[in-house]
Amino acid sequence: MSLLPEYEVMITRRSFPMRCPAGSSALGLALAVSLGACGGSTPSPLDAPPAPPADDVARLPDEISREEILLRGTPDPTAYALIRRLRPTWLLARGQTSFTNGASSFPVVYVDGILRGGLATLHQVAPNQIKRMEFIGPGDATTRWGTGHRSGVINVVTGR
Question: Of 3, 6, 7, which is closest to residue 24 (Cα–Cα)?
Fold first, then answer.
């Protein structure tokens, strides 16, 4: 058996011994890891486009349209249940109303542009009456209806 120089290593996993420099295995490993971290190949223009969603109804974060209600909202008995399922963030409290009063405030409900009250009002509106619903943030609600809308407005349009 002959002695190998210090810069060479004997690899015996194969049926025949193979000699390679000691640094080349670490270099090969580093190259494989860096290529694997690149995330794959770029899409080819010949690849098929991604599949469209199952429905063509636009899902806007601040609006629930009549089409979306018909498509996704049939089992809901009330507007509150519909919002809770489709846009639950509309029903969340939005911070303190003042430093002295630590209570959080909730959005106010308008039906056809008329103030109806708090979120409990949504239990009185059936989804089959709704043309669309929209969440209006505090700034826009104050501009449209005046002060007192610190947590925004849920505006229900029935189309009556």
Answer: 7
Q: Which CATH class for the 63-157 domain?
A: mainly beta
Tell me which residue of 121, 117, 113 sits closest to 144, measured CA to CA: 113
Q: How sure is the predictor about 141, in pLDDT bands with cuts at 50, 70 and 90?
A: very high
Would you kindly state where each structural domain of the chain is located, as residue ranges?
1-38, 63-157
Q: Which residue type occupies 85?
A: R
The two beta strands, 8-11 and 108-111, are: unpaired
One-letter amino acid at 139 equals G
Q: In this structure, what are the phi and psi dihedrals at residue 89, rounded to the nearest 5 degrees? A: -65, -20
Q: Please say whether the beta carbons of 154 and 110 come within 8 A.
A: yes
Which tens digits make up the pLDDT trace of 22-65? 555 565 666 555 555 555 455 444 444 444 445 555 678 899 99
Q: Could you tell me the pTM of the whole model?
A: 0.61
Yes or no: say if 50 and 41 are a contact pair by the CB < 8 Å rule.
no
